[in-house]
Write a structure and sequence with these properties.
The protein has 146 residues and is of the alpha+beta class. It is 18% helix and 14% strand. A four-stranded antiparallel beta sheet has the order 3-2-1-4, with no helix packed on it. It is elongated.
Length: 146
């Protein structure tokens, strides 16, 4: 049965509190408890939405602070606007690892810093960093600046 275009169905307004109560009290896959119970607790640990390949947390091998890295750019981060085929995939600057953070059941986070003390505002996981071998001859600074 279809309503004429001039009329509106308001049956959902009547059933909305029932639906929300059911949704609030159902067990979620990532938490293992209902959202109503999660709000009562001070700390809730969620499972990963997709499994990570390889070790994680304290078992994950860490990068040392003396290696050189570049980070993977977000779309439009360097050039601005839409991504083009000629845009860089990796940051043109070379960075050192300033700090790393290891937590239980979380990937290791890295903060970067360059030779002039500049750093990106966000942290990175190992998969978003490109390790530059120590015997690599880097291009001149004027090439990287443009």
């Amino acid at each position: 049965m279809r309503l004429p275009p001039t009329e509106r169905c308001r049956a959902w307004v009547k059933n909305l509190p029932i639906f929300l109560a059911e949704l609030d009290n159902s067990v979620t896959r990532l938490l293992g408890i209902s959202p109503a119970e999660a709000r009562k607790k001070e700390h809730v640990f969620a499972k990963a939405s997709k499994p990570r390949k390889g070790p994680i947390g304290f078992d994950e091998p860490r990068l040392s602070h003396d290696i050189l890295v570049r980070y993977l750019l977000n779309p439009g981060e360097l050039e601005g606007g839409r991504r083009r085929a000629t845009d860089c995939n990796w940051s043109p600057q070379i960075y050192h690892i300033r700090e790393s953070l290891v937590q239980k059941n979380q990937p290791v986070l890295y903060w970067l810093i360059d030779d002039e003390g500049n750093s990106p505002k966000r942290s990175f996981v190992r998969e978003k960093l490109q390790i530059i071998p120590p015997d690599t001859e880097l291009p001149p600074r004027w090439v990287l600046a443009n």
